[in-house]
Amino acid sequence: MMTTFPYKDSAQALQFALGYFDRLQADADIRATWLKLRAIVQLKMRDPDIQAYVDTRSGTQMQVRAGVAAEPPNVVISLTADVFHQIYTGQLNVIMAFATGKIKTRGNTGLVMRTTWTLPAAIRIYREYLKEIGVKEEKGSKKIKIPTRQSTVSGERPMRLKERFLHGERQVCIERARYLTESYRQTEGQPAALRQARALRHILNHLTMNIAPDELLVGGLTGKSLAAAVYPECAGQRILGELPTLETRQDNPFHIGPEERRELEEMLLYWRGKTLEDYARSAWPPQVADYYDKIAPFILTEIGGIAHQLLNHEKVLQLGLEKIVAEARQRRGSAAGEQADFYEAVEEACIGVIEWAGRYAAEAGRQAQIEVDPQRRIELERIAKVCQRVPAMPARTLQEALQTVLFVHYAAQMESYVSAISPGRIDQFLHPYYAADLAAGRLDRRAARELLECFYLKLSESLPLFDSDATVAFSGLTSWANTVIGGTDANGLDATNDFSYLALEAMERMRTPQPNFGVRLHANTPPEFRNRVCQAVAGGIGNLQIFNDEAVIGAMIERNIPLAEARTYGIIGCVEPAVPGCSFTSSDAALFNMGLCLELALNNGCGRIVTEPIGPATGDPRSFASMDDVVEAYRRQVAYLVSLMIDGLEGLARVHAAHKPTPFVSAFTDDCLAQGKDVTAGGARYNFTGPQGVGTATVGDSLAAIDQLVFREKRVTMEELLRALDDDFEGQEPLRQLLINHAPKYGNDDDRADAWARLAAEIYCQEVGKYPTYRGGRYQPGLYSVTMHIVFGLLVGATPDGRHARTTLSQGVSPAHGRDQHGPTAALRSASKLNQRLVGNGLALNQRINPKGLAGPQGAGILDGLLGGYLALGGMQLQWEIVDRATLLAAQERPEEYRDLVVRVAGYSALFTDLSRAVQDEMINRMEHEI
Amino acid sequence: MEAKPGLIFDVQRFSLHDGPGIRTVVFFKGCPLRCRWCQNPEGLLPFPEIAFQAERCINARACVRACPCDAIVYPAEKDDGAPNTAKRIRRAACDRCGLCAAACPSGALRVVGRYYSVDELSAEVLRDQPFYRASGGGVTASGGEAMLQTKFLIAFFRRCKEHGIHTALETCGQVGWERLVGVLPYCDLVLFDVKAIDPARHRQLTGYENTLILDNLCRLVADGIQIIPRIPLIPTLTTTPQNLDDIALFLQSLGLTAVHLLPYHRLGEDKIHRLDSPLLPLSLPDLSLDEVSMIANRFRQAGLTPISLHGS
Ligand code: SF4
Ligand code: SF4
């Protein structure tokens, strides 16, 4: 009788398997053999189910990862865990296992065969491993300690930390919810600001502390590492129904134990009727609530918590929280009523954070005493010292500064919500500490970079827990902690410094999901820096964003922000500019479906998917005499639905002020203390609310098609067009192709289309810009969609640009998928024709770029030229999406979405999607070899 | 005086391999040579052609209704039942009026080649001026053979120079010197194809001997304009050791250093089927990276600086 695999639980099994692979890697022969494969090998194990893969494409690195490889593997091996176990214990011959179908492969089986000669060594290592973790080979015993990987993972500290970050299981941590609820139960009837502050303090007094091996910077939103906190007071009820499936859902699963689940369910009962959503529903006009449930015209993101802020780290770093407490106390002396409550809340919240740091100091000290490794003991002692000092007192060193930023960052996330609490211009406010360390010889550049890398990882650890709807809308486990480097100072002088380079370097090395990383460029950015940025992109860094100071500052001035302050802007979340430290811009307040407005305009106020009257009756389009009538109908739909959205947001703003003030961030956001007002009540110097319009290109292209084919060429009648839209082009493919191929499209530098896209967005921006906010500021529009264009697309029928019903709308201000066929320069020109001055809340332009043709210094030069041209044209923002093998494979499957992929060979021109399958395959293979 | 319009079959922006920086390549239609590997078969004939791309055809039959000459074949005649090589047009009956392409909703039928005035074409290339400036790029006239439309080319290049745009001419060299000489004042760089040295071999490969071509190259060198020779590496056709050595020796004797190597690829052969093309697909295997670097070495040893252009 053969023995069986020792684990029944997938998570444990995975950790076990990864531990084993680490040990395999440590064997020189095995490692060398695998490196020679230069391939991705995907392992699919069943009973328990595990997915993992090995990636040796670089030929120098052997990367073992949990999950499914993002790019198609060269070979997939599937087998049961028992077969796996039996092979590596030497009980089952591997060739026999192949022959009898116990191992199945897909793809290049030969690759696997080339590794079999190392099997004897692998078997030996497996047996030692089992022994080491106490598994008896004869019989799988139930209680086995989970092996730690740390001992065998090699590489520098940040890489080790990153490994752990990537491989760890994502869990739900209910501690925030637990202590928040405990506190709220005790503070019934007290002023909201105080309840909030007391809850925060209570959480911070009880949250489990967590100092992981290798860490130099500490803290976290949760008691467990790699966990997501729960916000029962926001839209927490929504997750309630999903708790049972959280672990098994396909996208972003989270582990939660049965007892915790029960406890959480019990807590959520307390919050029934007390969540932001509940309060908002009673504050809203009925129509808003109705639309909120259907998410057809807009979603009100703010309902999940506002967060979204550039914190005033500079102030906390320079003063320390104690001084802020003192100021609040002093002001409380001469205040009364709500103001006095506010100041008291500020004090209490700040004290909570100081206490929290103190707990970490004690914990680090305790760990130092029992630490056997002398090196680590020194590190722990230093952590203890740092946490003793900051954030209570001013920071003096880079480590103190980074630790301050983290404590403040986490506490802000804990108080409000996890999303888009953004560090901002780290190269500006951290540089003095770095410079001081260098000057005093406390740190060299490399050690500084290591700290910064640890910092990026710590930012990445804050995970959001979304319900499944939100997971689609905001896919990817990101908290949108945005940082930008470069740019100018308040006088307009270039502010790029050595720390800017360091921050970029650290990002290149770590490639962590956070921070969301951007670069500010302007006419006097040093050419070396711009070139360095381009090198990073050519090297394949995917998530780097570019902001053009001139355009961003222009849009801010349009919103009456003084030039000197506008020049110091940072970015919140995705792309939203704000003056750091003194703004409260609720920059992701809502997303608005412009595509639906067009549908309503062409259907007399009714939707095609949501088949009921949504907007005003703007007339039967068959009676429209010209484009003016079409545009007028669209404008009226936008105006009506924007006004409803604003009603919804105003209701929410009141609810936030009344029920979820955020005294901690108000403590250092200028001018809250001076005014004695919370940020949610309008205490900040600059107040905005930013809802984003989605579908610029879809609407623009649709208007262009109607203009060109219905009114100008009269090739299609309105009647024919509408009927085709009703039928989702069923049986009308020729008409659809005509709309696609014979009407101009935004993104090709064709004014006939670009002008319509500009108008479509402008109408939205003008409507939004009309309204003042509850907090005493203005509404300011953005044009980006995160991944909401997909969700909104599901609610919109076929459109005159040839788009099918329920398919995605265009993303941000990017051209509709595959409709830009004249290369990146043309697309950039199109985007720069938009009326960017109106888009105070930022816009997002994505562009595919193939780094292969750009490798080497010359490639960086080309990108530099592309950027330089875009800046000269006044474009606002740009993010490059790296084209890789997976992109080309996708293009083969869905050619219509990828008509923008141009093949560039000397003296030759073609679109990738126009190549024959065989030639495409060849290019894909070539790509694989040359990367 | 406005030159007669130019016949252009493509304007490709953001081209990276035909001269320095970010460039717009203007493909002129019509070529005196018939190189067997030509990657732009739609550039050979000096008049607009109708191309049919079967993969894009949605069987709308709009072309059948549109054609006044009854030249549309429907259902498609297929070459040995193989899909995607269908010929839609009976070429003998077709007078290339283009009505089918105008009617074709999907873009499967297309008119290749469009007449541009100098104003139109310069307006088109001027759009990317900010990118040329930022990258040190410009405009490249390619083809086909741009020199066949000399007057238009001169007028166009002159306009480019008025706007301070860098200009490059990519030429096969099979053109009278008196024509070339007229372009040179408005041209910053010549990319000059060198395919074979032995005249008989050259005739075999391209349909013409190379006397005129090599003579032009020598004269250009004497003229002092910046020249980069480009050598198409076509396995077995141009890559014989003898031919490569001959080319290296010749270029070296002219005192040229930089040379572009253009490794063979089959990308262009897809396009042959779409046209009534005089060419046949070669279907040669690609050169491996190793082979290309060996060839590059050969040139390096001869004292030249080869740059191989794989593209992307
Ligand atoms: S180009 Fe004119 S003649 Fe030729 S197939 Fe088309 S419609 Fe007929
Ligand atoms: S010279 Fe150029 S365009 Fe003319 S046939 Fe030869 S390769 Fe083709």
Question: Topology, please?
Answer:
The complex is a heterodimer of chains A (931) and B (312).
Chain A: H1 10-25, H2 28-37, E1 40-46, E2 50-55, E3 63-66, E4 75-80, H3 81-88, H4 94-99, E5 104-107, H5 109-113, H6 119-132, H7 157-167, E6 171-173, H8 175-186, H9 192-206, E7 227-229, H10 237-240, H11 258-271, H12 276-283, H13 286-294, E8 298-299, E9 309-310, H14 313-319, H15 321-333, H16 337-370, H17 374-389, H18 398-415, E10 421-422, H19 426-429, H20 431-440, H21 445-460, H22 468-473, E11 482-486, H23 498-510, E12 516-521, H24 527-538, E13 545-548, H25 549-558, H26 563-566, E14 570-572, E15 576-578, E16 583-584, E17 590-593, H27 594-601, H28 627-659, H29 663-668, H30 672-675, E18 686-689, E19 691-694, H31 696-712, H32 718-726, H33 733-741, H34 751-769, E20 778-779, H35 788-794, H36 823-832, E21 846-849, H37 856-873, E22 877-882, H38 885-893, E23 902-905, E24 908-911, H39 917-930
Parallel strand pairs in A: 1-4, 6-7, 9-10, 11-12, 12-13, 16-18, 17-19, 18-20, 21-22
Antiparallel strand pairs in A: 1-2, 2-3, 4-5, 8-17, 13-22, 14-15, 23-24
Helix pairs in contact in A: 7-21, 8-9, 8-11, 9-16, 12-28, 15-16, 16-17, 18-21, 21-23, 23-24, 24-37, 27-28, 28-34, 31-34, 36-37, 38-39
Chain B: E1 6-15, E2 23-28, E3 49-52, H1 62-66, E4 72-77, E5 87-89, H2 99-103, E6 109-112, E7 114-116, H3 118-126, H4 129-135, E8 138-143, H5 150-162, E9 166-171, H6 177-183, E10 189-193, H7 199-206, H8 211-223, E11 226-233, H9 241-253, E12 258-263, H10 269-272, H11 289-301, E13 305-308
Parallel strand pairs in B: 2-8, 8-9, 9-10, 10-11, 11-12, 12-13
Antiparallel strand pairs in B: 1-2, 1-7, 3-6, 4-5
Helix pairs in contact in B: 3-5, 5-6
The structure holds iron/sulfur cluster (2 copies).
